[in-house]
Automatic annotation (TrEMBL):
SMART domains: AAA. It comes from the Bacteria. This is ABC transporter. The lineage of its organism: Bacteria, Pseudomonadati, Bacteroidota, Flavobacteriia, Flavobacteriales. InterPro entries: AAA+_ATPase, ABC_transporter-like_ATP-bd, Metal_Ion_Import_ABC, P-loop_NTPase.
């Protein structure tokens, strides 16, 4: 596991979250949710070793963060805060290039390889036409992508984002969330992000860290939400036009969670399958077979093996 929290307690003079036991690995995207004031930003700052751990430990790539320098942490984790200051007189190219300077002294000039990588990041984010734009002239969505581009330029295996979709309209929220998921899957990055728009954001996350009553619940997104159904007022988001849903017969909450899980993980046509939820089990059937599963992991394994 890339990041491990072992019996970790975080806070200031008094604990905010106690006894955290969880881990995340490269290629995963995790959504951090909870009410204001429960400790989400404090948790992020503690992972970055900006706040001291009150108890237990946090390990990054098998090393206790207490043993890592600020530079070593920056090489492992890039961060994008929601209230990041916009540097005056900087262009988009300047901002993304800043990500490279964690590897060099401040007076160092980027070499051609670095400059080419910055250009590739700009193009991958569809920001080429804005390369030399002043940051103040960018839209909120493109500015957010530019800050993500700076984090990418660090070449860190993990990226943490605090409220990356704040103040964006729904179209730009989806663009950013799709971008984060693609980064996790295509570039094997570990993405941890917090969001107040979690009902939409859950469609793009593999895991959830849910903070409530000084406790952090962690696990597969849909299973965490099912176990905390006070969060939900069921609604099906359809963000993938290639997904063809199966028949689902279940209570609204379970139907929403299964739909979310299947849409996120399977591009193939599933309309020949029927899912029925009863007595804690999912019965999956078609014209040729019938199986029972007790977890989303079992459902995923079953579908992977279908021809």
């Amino acid at each position: 596991m890339f990041i491990e929290l072992k019996n970790t307690t975080i806070g200031y003079n008094a604990p905010l979250i106690k006894g955290i036991e969880t881990s995340l690995d490269l290629g995963e995207i995790c959504l951090l949710i909870g009410n204001n004031g429960v400790g989400k930003t404090t948790l992020i700052k503690t992972i970055l070793h900006q706040n001291p751990v009150l108890g237990g430990e946090i390990r990054i790539n098998e090393k206790n963060i207490k043993t890592l320098s600020n530079k070593e942490i920056a090489e492992q984790i890039a961060v994008v805060f929601s209230k990041a200051q916009i540097p005056a007189n900087y262009t988009l190219n300047d901002l993304i290039s800043l990500g490279k300077y964690i590897h060099y002294p401040y007076y160092f000039e980027l070499n051609d390889t670095d400059k080419n990588e910055v250009n590739e990041i700009i193009e991958s984010l569809n920001l080429g036409q804005y390369k030399n734009f002043p940051l103040q002239k960018l839209s909120d969505g493109n500015l957010q992508k530019a800050f993500i581009g700076r984090a990418l330029a660090q070449n860190s295996p993990m990226i943490i984002l605090d409220e990356p979709t704040t103040h964006l309209d729904e179209e730009n929220k989806i663009i950013i969330l799709k971008l984060l998921r693609n980064l996790a899957k295509r570039q094997n990055k570990l993405i941890l992000f917090s969001s107040h728009d979690w009902r939409l954001a859950k469609e793009f996350s593999d895991k959830i860290w849910f903070v409530k009553d000084q406790h952090l619940s962690a696990g597969i997104t849909e299973e965490v939400l099912i176990n905390n159904d006070e969060l939900l007022h069921p609604h099906l988001f359809n963000f993938d036009e290639h997904f063809v849903a199966p028949q689902i017969f279940a209570p609204d909450l379970h139907k929403e969670m299964l739909y979310s899980f299947l849409q996120k993980n399977f591009k193939k046509n599933l309309q020949y399958l029927k899912f029925e939820f009863e007595d804690g089990f999912w019965e999956i059937s078609s014209d040729t077979f019938q199986e029972k599963c007790s977890s989303f992991k079992q459902i995923a394994d079953l579908i992977e093996n279908l021809h």
